[in-house]
Design a protein that fits this description.
Length: 456
């Protein structure tokens, strides 16, 4: 039923995108429109017989499957001759470090804002520390760490965290989609897609040309190509679960790495694709078709992510929550735009979109923004969003500081100072790793993306 409801929402979203001019012109994906509708219907309890927790389960599985699919898709060399491995390494390190900066800086903003205005609404500034879980990590983490806050005595913390997450999703798409649309119009993306009529309405007419879904790699009388592709994804999923269980036994960081099953899955997928290549059977996986499967998983995942968010009445706190969210959204946009176009690569605009979507929602929302300008995921940006979780592990010091402040073992004022400490270290690391360079594109002015790259 959850799958069926998501399917209904997607079809309704497709119709709304095609028929309502305002929404059509925003280029908002059908999955986003469907997710917002589903979010409204779920919180209005339109679907009375559905256990809404099932959508969390759908999110977890599709999240892992989408990155397994990315791992099974070979990435071509970039147009500048830079190997995909080098591009992924550069992008994942840069994106991860920028994310770390936002993860450390946004709770400082949230805490300080509520420190000055929280008393007016009866809201303690500690609740402002929940903003990075809602914006940078999404509803799942927001609910999880909100529950931990509640164990420390902060009532309704989970509700506050999920509310931050819901607002973050809205920001991700209602700011990110216009940015993607602007980039298409200015030719900032690698593919330089033209905004044709079919792009606006979201589907092709009968006589319009479109790209092929891929090619058949197996004889249908034996096994369908789509069946084989799904079977390989299933094998990778099982192997990933076993590997995650083994990794969880590593002292210290084992459980943390194992909990990121999607990252383990992508690594295992790379290994499986490598083995298939050595056996000279890697041609059985068609990259173009595999990319379509990634898109399928992402579409359903986005809708499920929205429908997994349970909004509750937060009373007078909604005003400070909105204030904090809007200011953090503005800071996130500025930081993403400044650093995203300085990582250094032809796909920096795609990286900027992915970073902003991830830093205000989840990795799937970042993927959704990327797919507006790179619908077939030809660039390495999708892989980079998955691999950025490795450098993101350095953010544990921020998490530990926030939890200590919530528990009361660290004073609020001293905690805000300590939250700032790792930020200069991240900036220095970006310079050392050479992922903080001159801008590769300009949003406006005479310097186009190509001219900036040529000058460099």
């Amino acid at each position: 039923m959850a799958f069926g409801i998501i399917s209904i929402m997607l079809c309704l979203g497709m119709v709304i995108r095609a028929k309502i001019p305002f929404i059509r012109n925003t280029l908002a994906p059908a999955s986003v429109i469907a997710g917002i509708m589903g979010f409204i219907f779920i919180n209005l309890e339109v679907f009375e017989n559905i256990d809404t927790s099932i959508f969390n389960t759908v999110v977890q599985h599709l999240f892992t499957l989408s990155f397994i699919s990315i791992g099974l898709t070979s990435n071509p060399k970039s147009k500048t001759g830079e190997s995909s491995i080098k591009s992924v390494a550069k992008g994942s390190l840069g994106l991860g470090m920028i994310w770390n900066i936002l993860y450390a800086f946004t709770p400082i903003i949230g805490g300080l804002l509520l420190y000055f205005i929280g008393n007016i609404f009866g809201m303690h500034p500690v609740y402002g520390l929940l903003i990075p879980f809602g914006f940078s990590q999404g509803p799942g983490q927001a609910a999880t760490f909100g529950a931990i806050f509640e164990q420390y005595g902060w009532t309704n913390a989970s509700m506050v965290g999920v509310t931050f997450a819901a607002i973050g999703f809205i920001v991700a798409f209602f700011v990110g989609v216009p940015l993607a649309k602007y980039g298409l119009r200015k030719g900032l993306s690698v593919n330089n897609n033209k905004i044709d009529d079919y792009v606006k309405r979201g589907y092709y007419n009968k006589n319009e040309s479109s790209t092929m879904l891929g090619k058949e790699t197996t004889f249908s009388g034996n096994i369908e190509t789509i069946t084989f592709h799904f079977a390989i994804m299933g094998i990778v999923y099982v192997l990933s679960v076993f590997l995650a269980d083994i990794i969880s036994n590593i002292p210290g960081i084992g459980e943390t790495i194992a909990s990121m099953l999607f990252m383990v899955g992508m690594i295992v997928a790379y290994g499986v694709k490598y083995i298939m290549k050595k056996l000279n059977i890697d041609h059985l996986i068609d990259n173009q078709f595999q990319g379509k499967l990634t898109g399928w998983a992402t579409d359903y995942l986005i809708v499920a992510s929205f429908m997994a968010v349970q909004m509750s009445v937060v009373g007078n706190w909604i005003i400070p929550i909105i204030i904090v969210s809007l200011i953090v959204a503005l800071v996130t946009f500025v930081v993403s735009l400044y650093f995203g176009r300085r990582i250094g690569g032809e796909n920096d605009f795609e990286r900027t979109l992915g970073l902003f979507g991830t830093a205000t929602g989840t990795v799937p929302s970042g993927m959704a923004l990327i797919r507006i300008v790179d619908p077939t995921l030809n660039t390495t940006t999708g892989t980079e969003l998955g691999m950025m979780n490795l450098p993101m592990m350095f953010s544990y010091v921020t998490l530990a500081t926030i939890l200590a402040m919530a528990e009361g073992t660290l004073s609020f004022e001293l905690g805000l100072v300590l939250l700032f400490v790792p930020i200069p270290a991240y900036l220095i690391a970006m310079k050392i790793l050479k992922v903080w360079n001159d801008p590769t594109y300009q949003l406006k002015g005479s310097d186009s993306k190509s001219s900036v790259r040529t000058n460099k």
